[in-house]
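Researcher: We're teaching a course module on how sequence relates to structure. For the next exercise, students receive a sequence and then see the predicted structure as tokens, so they can try to spot secondary structure elements on their own. Here is the exercise chain.
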Amino acid sequence: MSFSSLPGSFSSSSHPLVPYGWDADWEAEFAPYHSEGLLAGRVIRVDRGQCDVVTPGGMLRADTAFVAPHDPMRVVCTGDWVAVEPAGDPRYVRTYLPRRSAFVRSTSSKRSEGQILAANVDYAVVAMSLAVELDLGRVERFLALAWESGAQPVVVLTKADLVPDATTLSYLVQDVETAAPGVPVLSVSSNLGEGLDVLAAVLSGGTSVLLGQSGAGKSTLANALLGEDVMKVHATRDVDGKGRHTTTTRNLLALPGGGVLIDTPGLRGVGLWDAETGVNQVFSEIEALAAKCRFHDCAHTSEPGCAVLAALDTGELPERRLDSYRKLLRENQRIVAKTDARLRAEIRRDWKRKGAEGKAAMEAKRGHWG
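Model: And here is the predicted structure for the students to work with:
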């Protein structure tokens, strides 16, 4: 897959916020706040109700309590473009500009809340370590959230120097490409510097968020892209390749070759959050097959004329892919149902219908045996 430069690049390269992604469209969005005397800035870090904001005049600290403090989906987030008071103690963020994209996952809370990890992201970089066995299901999960966010996913296979030979590395890349249709897959070695020039060229086109589990080599990769040891690095455990959380907050950093990078803490859990479109994008080949099924509401379980099951029988569709697709759709449906009364009612009706069909089938069998 080829990359192209992002549209809407800002012509005034002298503007001090251009290295952080400021462009003509953001300037137009900010115009009403400029007339009120507020400062434009981009949030580079959020910590306990306060945030660091880079502005034309330099870095400043601001309080975020003024902006929807009790709504987790509307709190100020790393990557936001904000309007900040020029003075005050404390100094407040008054609002943030409408987000072009937002990477959201569900929290571990039983209240089923969403958590915004990064805002205004152009590329979602999913880092997976080659030091341990690849978890293709986890790749698909990250990609579903990435597509749903509105960002272009990129899978980066780190620690390529630990793979014994080029042939094995090629096979591993192919495996991930199969699980990530339409997504660039790059292998890199931060220690040897291999593949970093290609990745840096991709990321120079906008804002990127770096995602992955602890031990995936994200901080080492970030340091290699930045050209200096900005992020702390901890060694991973030999037994399972896992590491401690090196990064504890989300930080936005300007890259020397252009573009900005948001590094995130290692994610133990990556729950879906209303990501049906993203799931369908990840499994686009299944969606294409489903369009050929005899029935438009085919569940791909036992229906006659099911193109998905036919592809499964011929080996065209791997069973692992179909199982992963079903799992992510079920999970997403459960999340959405917790906040969507209409969907909950539809699920209950579907359960009742299936229960009635099962009961009728059993009664028919009893009658036949009798």
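Model: If you want an answer key for the exercise: The chain has ten helices and 13 strands. Residues 1-11, 234-248 have pLDDT under 50 and may be disordered.
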